Amino acid sequence: MDKQQILIVDDEEVNREILGWVFQSEYEVLQAENGQEAVEKIKGNENIVLILLDVIMPVLDGFGVLEYMRTHDLSDKIPVVLITGETVENSEDQAYSYGVADVMHKPFFPHIVKRRAENIIELYQNKKNMEMRLKEQEEAIMAQNKKIRESNEFMIDALSSVVEFRSLETGEHIKRIKYFTRIMLKYLMKYFPKYGLTSAQVDEISRAAALHDIGKIGIPDAILLKPGRLTPEEFEVMKTHTTIGCDILEKFRSEQTDEDEFYRYCYEICRYHHERWDGKGYPDHLAGDEIPISAQIVAVADVYDALVSPRVYKSAYANNIAYDMIMNGECGQFSSDVMECFALAKEDFFNIVEVIKMFDFS
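^ thats the sequence. predicted structure below, dont judge the formating
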């Protein structure tokens, strides 16, 4: 390991020699007779643990060095002790505005300079070590959270795949729903700041969308897999998949998840993704802004995917026909904000096979 360095910057050689003698036994001493030389020695040097800096010097003065350090984000990394003459007015206030660690006046006492310098070096080293430990802990926590999230994601996809398997749908359905939801939320976040969506919330809602039809686990095969149109009585049973899904989620909820945002999104999407803006949806006949925005977005994603995908009871519609059906209100009424986002996402939806490869849903 390279020896720690102290940089002494002073245009008077005698001062440099006195200070160099004080520190030479414990540190490698660098010297500069003006600010420009000091800047050259500072550039790219990670071994400097302290700079003893004079103020009045030719070529570039001490404040010029401090300005360079501030511009290059070095002020918090390398402590500076400013050594100034007694006749320099207002130098202390200006120095502290640059973030110097200490100000000492000439003539100085070498042993006092040494003691104060060692205290400053120790302080900065402890700060640096603490920051490194905090960074390591933060990285460890992030890695642990990533592992937990990946595990949860696996369970979500596995549970969702059970519904797909029972419904005889392809394994890409959940991935498409998550993609459609994510891209529409991106447009909502960008063009409709009134909803206050963040990138983290976009990720949470997109993941929660995978569980929108989890309640279909409780629907009898005779209804779920019926190749023809459902009778009114059968449709009433099918509608219950929204509340069955919420019952399933409730069984998995613990005290720790009572205020969990992800759980809330899962619940909202499960229960309300068949609600419509005009109140003609189900199960609670919510209308307008009573419907959570998470459920509104997933509702469009779900309808579009249902239209463009083959089912046991129908063949797939072409992309443009499905788009027009939704925009014309043939699949229920949606809010104007959501419809605008859907229009913005049109090309993304049409090119799902290519675009979906560009997104990481983990």
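The first helix runs from residue 13 to 23.
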